[in-house]
Amino acid sequence: MGRLIDIKGIGPKTVQKLNRLNIKTTNDLLFSFPSKYETHKINDFSSKELDKELTLVAKVYKKPRIFFIRRNLDKLSVQVEIDKVIFYVHIFNRRFLSKSLIPDTEIVITGRFLKNFASFTASNIVLKKNYKLGIIPIYGFKEIKESTSNKIIKQILSFDYSISETLPGWALDKHKIPNINSLIDIIHNPKTEEDIYISKKRIIYEELLNFAVKIQALKKLNKSIITINKKYDITIVKDFIKTLPFVLTKDQQLATNDIFKDLKSNQQMNRLLQGDVGSGKTIVSIIASLAVVTAKFQVAIMAPTLVLAKQHFATFSKYLSSYGIRIGLLTSEMKISEKNAVAEAIRNNQIDIIIGTHSLIQESIDFHNLGFAVIDEQHRFGVKQRRELRLKGATPDILLMSATPIPRTLAISIYQDIDLSFIKEKPVGRLPISTDVVAYEDLDLLLENIKTELDKNHQAYFICPKILNSETSTKISVNELYNILNTELGNQYKIGVLHGKMIEPEKTSVLDKFYNNEIDILISTTVVEVGVNIKNATVMVILSADSFGLAQLHQLRGRIGRDSFQSYCYLVVDDILEAKDRLKILKETNDGFLISEYDLTIRGPGEVFGSIQSGIPIFKMANLINDQEILAQAFEDATIIMDALDVQSKRLRNKAIKSIESYNLD
Ligand code: ADP
Ligand code: MG
Q1: For residue 108, how far is its CA from the centre of ligand 1 (angstroms)?
Q2: Which domains are delineated in the chain?
Q3: Predicted pLDDT at 291
Q4: Ligand 1 atom showing the smallest separation from residue 282 Cα
Q5: Which residues does ligand 1 sit against, CB inside 6 Å?
Q6: Counting ligands in written order, which one lies closest to the CA of residue 533?
Q7: 297 against 392, higher pLDDT
Q8: 74, 463, 496, 627: which sits with the fewest CB atoms below 10 Å from its CB?
Q9: Is residue 611 scored above 50 in pLDDT?
Q10: Which ligand is nearest to the CA of 563?
Q11: What value does the mean pLDDT of the chain take?
Q12: pLDDT per residue as tens digits for the range 206-230
């Protein structure tokens, strides 16, 4: 490892500039890879076109003239000749070139003929003797000329350097990627596009491999967190499953098995159950909760909204009350005295399953012996809250449930150390929801269609992006839509309104009426987005659908099609031409995994996941979406590395463990 100052062409000024870029040694320079490449080749003059970037060899015809346009802006114009054709070349702020542009000198010009072939606007002019053909690395070091960077790097490459390999030899062979020394050679000096490709591949692979090893190490660490294993009564559980009004789907069975394996073990469960909307995650959590209660532990169920917490309370009660299980509800709207009474009952082990909103963990509640916590719709739930929960009770087993499912490889990267179970198939007999994009001006026609459904005694949701009208927005509000629907349909059908600004008893009463089919049409904001399960509803109309994300639209649509009836979703937009393309995927598929993957490629993980954004790793070159294939390979190899004996594997492991130790884990 050499000092920068010893390199020819590097003075103290350049050293300072490099230091500012965190480049301190010659080795650092070797690892300062080009940010991009330019391919230099000469275009054929006879096939020139207007407004196309061209690089041409020309001869200076007359010495240049300089025009001062204003402060800091001058223009150099020089007449040149190619194949006996004479034309002007203009370039800005390069008057220093004028001395070297002597008539008959050969130069290379890059730029465009903008309006005609008499005048060429150049972005670059180089003397032909200095012009290199082929692939040229561009370093983009701040304040340092490319020619300088290139010269310096070339010099260092000519030294006798030897870098020790960071990847196991078997991995290099397996993926046909260069070893570290040839990587450095070809990345600074690629001869072909293939050279660039394989060096990038190695860098991406190495980044993702380091990441994957870290996750494996983290998982290993998690496995060392001990909980008390749950000695549940399998006979009761099996009987319960037998009495269900339906048969569990294959995926539900597999997920249940995963969970039971975790419960049985004395390692802490840290599992994410991913399933599309309506795939039946709730019943899986009910089965697991029953098991934990038979093992004499308490259970906490947390939902993102009050509406959903109440629905879970009703569902759990319906399924489990005949087992003598005591189920409690704790919500923020309760009176202090009521809350206190529930908290007391939890402390004294008089409640087996407590259901509440996510704020349950923030309330100062002591459990008698919390053994299992379920967090529904966890994408609404931050990493921090998850950690808070882990601090409650004696490391309860934790089951997260998500209805924004994402493909496995991506899920692994985003949820890192969490084990995953997937429910991909829907219960049998579910028909795909028919989905259409409809222009707002056709609302009348749409209402006629919907009447047919309502007349079958089915119910409909109408979702609006906002509650009240405002002058600044053209989006339709709940109130406005109520007026319209009330005029059109009010004498035939009962219409209810639901939104977040209503007081709790009103919300509950409206939703109860909708559950009991006393209301035909529910006009609502996105408060019904997650979880609400009303099987008789078969119509979902989303107004201003273009103002929602795809994953969110799919969630909203998931409120219907929860039984064997054919259901209909209408995405109403103002500008149908503009919206149709973006919303097409919803029309084409009901598969939430596909939709979220598509959404992720378009908007990126940060946008789609919002609150868990902090958990998404940042890479220099790798991209979790585009490089999924390499990511999968990295994970595969990381498992090998955890036990491999070669030097590089050991080093990778140690590095991962070190970086975990410096984390602030819990
Ligand atoms: P989500 O996965 O969106 O939370 P839910 O758990 O609310 O879905 O389930 C949706 C509906 O499907 C519920 O009414 C539930 O009773 C029903 N259900 C769940 N599993 C099955 C099954 N295996 N067969 C038929 N219906 C089922
Ligand atoms: Mg649910």
Answers
A1: 70
A2: 42-130 (2.40.50.140), 248-423 (3.40.50.300), 434-589 (3.40.50.300)
A3: 98
A4: 6
A5: 246-249, 252, 275, 277-283, 403, 427, 533, 535, 562
A6: 1
A7: 297
A8: 74
A9: no
A10: 1
A11: 88
A12: 999 998 898 888 778 777 777 889 9
